[in-house]
Amino acid sequence: MSSELRYTANTQLENLHARYTGTGHADLSKHDWITHQHRDTLASIVGHPTLTSYLAIADGESIGRVRFEMAERMLQPCGPPPKVAN
Amino acid sequence: MHLYNLTLQPPTAITHAVVGNFSGARQQEIIVSHGTRLELLRPDVQAGGKFTTIVSTDVFGSIRSLASFRLTGSTKDYAVVASDSGRIIILDYDPKSSSFIKLHQETYGKSGARRIVPGQFLATDPKGRSVMVAAMEKAKLVYILNRDAAANLTISSPLEAHKNTAIIHHIVGLDVGFENPLFAALEVDYSEADQDATGEALKNTEKMLTYYELDLGLNHVVRKWSEPIDSRANLLVQVPGGQLASSERFDGPSGVLVCCENHIIYRHMDAPAHRVPIPRRNHPLEDPNRGVLIVAAVMHKMKGAFFFLLQSEDGDLFKVTIEHEDEEVKDVRIKYFDTVPVASSLCILKSGFLFVASEFGNHYMYRFQKLGDDDDEPEFNSASFSGFGMANPKMPLPHAYFRTRPLDNLMLSDETESLDPVIDSKVLNLLPNSDSPQIFAACGRGARSTLRTLRHGLEVEESVSSELPGIPNAVWTTKKREDDAYDSYIILSFINGTLVLSIGENIEEVQDTGFLSSAPTLAVQQIGSDGLLQVHPGGIRHVLADKRVNEWRAPGGKTIVCATTNKRQVVVALSSAELVYFELDLDGQLNEYQDLKAMGSTVLALSVGEVPEGRQRTPYLAVGCEDQTVRIISLDPDTTMETISLQALTAPPSAICIAEMLDASINKAQPTMFVNIGLQNGVLLRTVLDPINGQLTDTRTRFLGTRPIRLVRVMVQRNPAILALSSRSWLNYTYQNMMHFTPLIFENLDYAWSFSAELCQEGLIGIAGSVLRIFQVPNLGMKLKQDSIPLSHTPRKFITHPENNYFYLIEGDHRVRGKVASEMRLRELRSNGIEVDEEVVSLPPDAFGYPKAPAGTWASSIRIVDPVEAKTVLEIPLDGNEAAFSIAIVPFSAQNGELHLVVGTAADTTLTPKSCSSGFLRAYKFTDDGAGLEFLHKTETDDVPLALMAFQGRLVAGVGKALRIYDIGKKKLLRKVENKNFPSTIVTLNTQGSRILVGDMQESVFFVAYKPPENRLLIFADDTQPRWTTAVTMLDYNTVAGGDRFGNVFVNRLDSKISEQVDEDPTGAGILHEKGLFMGAPHKTKMLAHFHVGDIITSIHKVSLVAGAREVLLYTCLHGTIGILVPFTSKEDVDFISTLEQHMRTEQGSLVGRDHLSWRGYYTPVKAVVDGDLCETFARLVASKQSNIAGELDRTVGEVLKKLEQLRVTTSGF
Predict the structure, then answer these.
(1) What is the full DSSP assignment across B831-892?
(2) Smallest Cα–Cα separation from B1082: which of B1073, B1093, B1092, B1091?
(3) Does domain B1128-1212 have CATH number 1.20.950.20?
(4) For residue B483, with 0-12 CB atoms within 10 Å meaning exposed, 13-18 middle and 19 or more buried, which class applies?
(5) Which chain B residues have a beta carbon less than 8 Å from that of A50?
(6) Of B786, B788, B789, nearest in space to B872 by CA
(7) How far apart, in whole angstroms, are the C-alpha atoms of residue B1123 and residue B8?
(8) Do B1119 and A53 touch (CB under 8 A)?
(9) Cβ contacts of residue B1183 below 8 Å, gap of 6+?
(10) pLDDT tens digit string along B910-966?
(11) CA distance linking residue B1099 with residue B1124, whole number of Å
């Protein structure tokens, strides 16, 4: 976590959360957390050329398609969020 | 333990390629990224687009994106590199120093390939005014590029064009002429889908094509336009646009081509969209429900026209043209062009070449034969559909089809070898007459897979080989005159005579050359402007241009024993151990220096260097005597024949050769004078001769072979080189300003010389026994020669047989129908009366690939390969949709130790979710001495058996999460014992004694003990780190080395006390009841070494690469990297090399701005491994920095270089 967060405490927390997508907070739901995890992982796979090659060989697809399907999956990697009871 | 990591073969995969005039000359060049390396390639248009590597540098970071741009009015292109360093880099190629210069390095974020840190995508404005760098999500930064008053490139601070909660699929710079720069992005906003539990919002989420305008006046970026686009859009391609200043005419309509699954859409702001279908293969086995995706694209502008080549994931190229009137698009047309391997990047060169950087396998250069303008290939155009194909954008257009056919518009002109991907390897010495082991690598993907034999050495191309009447002992070639372009004579010296051949249309014997034919020859030289010189035991013959001969006879009773010559000087040694010196005077007369020089010991070898340009003579002579010394003697007129320096040797010398060669590690500006001394015991010494005081310094030694060495000065690719002949022939040459020493993969030569004729301008001529050979060395710098055996599917694993030389290899492809299944399907189609296009069906799969089948379909086979003969002995295809995943040869004790082949297969395997209908263990018997297999039986398993190994006369198998021991039965393999406590999936197995090391797919390596009395398999130790194991080998009983999926290598060791304790426990009851530690095994291994290679390790071996040298760890990686880890032998070496590494880290920053220490410690801090690749860049530093660092280390520069060379040579021979 960045040093600014430590010193300015909560005043700018919201702002910082908006800036650093994927940062957790106390009220994070399990679904939000796992979704972030998956998006981070998918982005990391696309970002490492060796990993896309590895998956493409295993799956018998082209690297281009592996990359595309990974990016597509980032939209909703873990299904819709659970229903919230009012 | 401390290790030294050295890359023997850098990665050969190309992840990006961009074309441009990077050196500023008129010629186009290509910069390619190999993932962790940048390389500048210059295609030779005359030689069919063959590449010359100009620079190749390790960037110590992972390159994620590469683009080029050119400032308006400039003639030079710059490269922009986005990597995982969180920095944008602008590189300039400097032709003077032949290196990349980092012009700008702007930090914008954290390092690492993160979701919201830009670096994944790069887009440049076609006029070179700005560049956009984007992340996978949200972040997009725009930099403005400009020139300052001194015409230097400047870069602004970044402007943000972020959009929260938006996943970015692609970005591209639009061509808008000189209006404000525009960038287009494909984005999907997930914020609503994230909130909606019903899933309705997800369905309504649209992919948007958004334009971002950089307002150069206001210096900020605005979202200019955003429109929904096909939800399966994946790629944007720039369409030319903008007006020419001179002619009002529009270059094109501007806008973008949006490549979607099955469609290409033309879009631009305020303009109607056009849509065309991507034609599909008309193959009877093609799955009609499968989408066609464009994976690579290139746009080419010619005078007044432009076209696109788009490549589908089957490798089919489509030519797209846009018909337009000014800015209004009338029609978009698409047609099939040709089929080439699937590319990661396509580049079109103005000289009419298409460079295909393949995503897997070799890279290709094609020449355009025509542009597919006037052929009868069906064309599909947007105007033929209602509303230009956009009447109902949600509905797909009707399928369009084409027939695949062999190349028509393109012609293959050159091929660059690439190992990528290396899936498995073995290191063995199988080939005859080889003293170092070969690397056998299973490479490639699909139908283009190969099994390659890699041999250390330079490839040799032989052009002539002819038998001679006797066995000559030496050969020379010579010109007649100094200014002749080619050689005229070949002189062969036999034991009792000399044969002169003239080189013309035929090579034939000539008599009237003035050479003495009745005696052997010791030296031949073209001397002065038009004289020839022959040294024979009785004297020296100087043949003048008019055939007059001046002869000098050796004094009575003495003979000449050896001689050395250059264009102006001759030195001969007499049998009385005296030297006679001759020099050419200005009249072209050879004058003898009055005094003989007595050496006191028989002279064995002599050498003078070439006369430096514009000089009368070279001032130094090297003399090797029988008393095991080499003396440097002055030839200077003032001090003629005075001994200057002396070097003692360990054995009598057999040859000496003084040569001036460029070695940038010693002197970057001019060639260094080397004295090479070959000894009779096969050792070569290389020392540097100081041109000022004649002292010998910086001696390096190398063992070349078992025979006394002969040395010959030759020319290779217009540079001086030295051929060293022993029981192997070696070439010492300069490549990319660095000195290299590589064996030739060729028959042993007894003697050799340069050879230059019209047909073979840069050749060499050699004698091997009684055979005369003329040959060339075409690829300098390629240190591994590859020979390949084609395979039909992606190789998965292979093993060697303990008794014969065959390899047993399993191969398999997902989403491909097996041969039997396809034939059955075709027969079915035919019997249903459906016409099958036989021509299309019979096209070779290595060029066109296999038709894609749904997930869960496999084609697989077992293959027996003879690696020595380089051929397939037998191929057994698997039926029933089975795919082979593991293989082992097991000597079953139940069958008296008879060897059996066991293959682990699974039927109907799918990868996500991981499942199969059933796994099988197929048992085979060997027949015909291993050339055949007899199927015995197959045993069902509940999961995929990914790892098999022989263990104490039985089979141990990793089946999913379970480790089992099987014994052989009559009808089945019989399960004896099982341990199911592994966390994910077992992928590797190793054993020593009764210990089994189990590599888990996600959780590193487990130590398992087998306790026979209780028949138990007990896990007693594991790793503290989760590791996605890919390859593992045991270094010793307690130590394990391996690689993981994120590109790390590691060494773990178990405490020897625990090891003993476990071994002493007879039943394993102690381990069984021991309490687990950290939710795992009771004991933990300790990490000894850790290093991030940057490429996924696919195999790792403990081998010795040089006969008699210590063992090293050799690893091969997915993208084609081959590297070694060398254990240091002394603490001093560790201290010295690690300190050097530290200095190099500060001195030699990464080219992409990645911090070296954090790159090598990407996932876990680097531990006990020194990066040899970084240390070796010491040789390329400027001299002042070199001496600074060497000073800090209390050594001389020479000593540092020598140490680095020694580390490489003694362990790898490279």
Answers:
(1) HTT----HHHHTS-HHHH-PPB--TT-EEEEEEEEETTTTEEEEEEE--TTEEEEEEEEEEE
(2) B1073
(3) no
(4) exposed
(5) 35, 1047, 1094-1096, 1117-1119
(6) B789
(7) 5
(8) yes
(9) B667, B668, B1197
(10) 998 899 999 999 999 999 999 999 999 999 999 999 999 999 999 999 999 999 999
(11) 12
The answer to whether B1020 touches B1082, Cβ cutoff 8 Å, is yes
List the 13-32 stretch of A: residues with Cβ below 8 A of B: 18, 20-22, 32
The pLDDT value given to residue B265: 97
Sort strands B280-281 and B401-402 into parallel, antiparallel or unpaired: parallel
Tokens of A60: 């018998």
* Distance set, CA B50 to CA B779, B830, B937 (Å): 11, 46, 52
Which helix or strand (DSSP H or E) is residue B944 part of? none
Rg (CA), chain A: 17
**What is the pLDDT averaged over residues B449-455?**
95
Q: Write the CB contacts of B1156 (distance below 8 Å, at least 6 apart in sequence).
A: B60, B1145, B1149, B1150, B1171, B1174
Give yes or no for residue A10 having a pLDDT over 70: no
Q: Is B247 exposed, middle or buried (0-12, 13-18, 19+ CB in 10 A)?
A: exposed
Q: Is B910 on the interface with A (CB under 8 A)?
A: no
Token pair recorded at residue B408: 């028509």
Of A32, A51, A65, the CB nearest to B295: A65
Tokens of B483: 């200014």
- At B419, which amino acid appears? L
Share of chain B above pLDDT 70, in %: 100
What is the predicted pLDDT for the residue at B271?
A: 94
- List of chain B residues whose C-beta atoms are within 8 Å of the C-beta of residue A41: none
Which among A43, A60, A62 is the nearest to B137, CB-wise? Answer: A43
Does the fold of domain B1128-1212 match that of domain B425-457+783-858+884-977? no
Q: For the domain B110-413, what is the CATH code?
A: 2.130.10.10
Using one digit for the tens of pLDDT, what is the confidence trace for B642-689? 999 999 999 999 999 999 999 988 888 889 999 999 999 999 999 999
Q: Which residue has the tokens 């060639």?
A: B671
Please judge whether A40 and B1119 are an interchain contact, meaning their C-beta atoms are less than 8 angstroms apart: no
B369-422 tens-digit pLDDT: 999 988 899 999 999 999 999 999 999 999 999 999 999 999 999 999 999 999
Q: How many residues does chain A have?
A: 86
B1047 min Cα distance to partner chain A (Å) = 8
**What number of residues does chain B have?**
1214
Candidates 2.130.10.10, 3.40.1190.10, 2.60.40.640, 1.10.10.10; CATH matching B461-782 = 2.130.10.10
Residue of B nearest to A64 (CA): B295
The residue ranges of every structural domain in chain B are: 110-413, 425-457+783-858+884-977, 461-782, 981-1096, 1128-1212
Question: Band of the pLDDT at B712, cuts 50, 70, 90?
Answer: very high
How many Å lie between the alpha carbon of B429 and the closest alpha carbon of chain A? 29
Which pair of tokens denotes residue B775?
């040959």
Which of B:384-443 have CB within 8 Å of A? 420-421, 423
pLDDT value for A22: 83
* Best of B37, B313, B339 to mutate (most A CBs within 10 Å, chain A): B313
| Top CATH class, B425-457+783-858+884-977 | mainly beta
Alpha carbon distance B1063, B1065 (integer Å) = 6
Confidence of residue B250 (pLDDT cuts 50, 70, 90): confident
Contact B293 A50 (CB under 8 A): no
Complex ipTM: 0.94
Nearest to B313 among A43, A65, A82 (CB): A65
**Distance of alpha carbon B309 from alpha carbon B296, whole angstroms:** 8
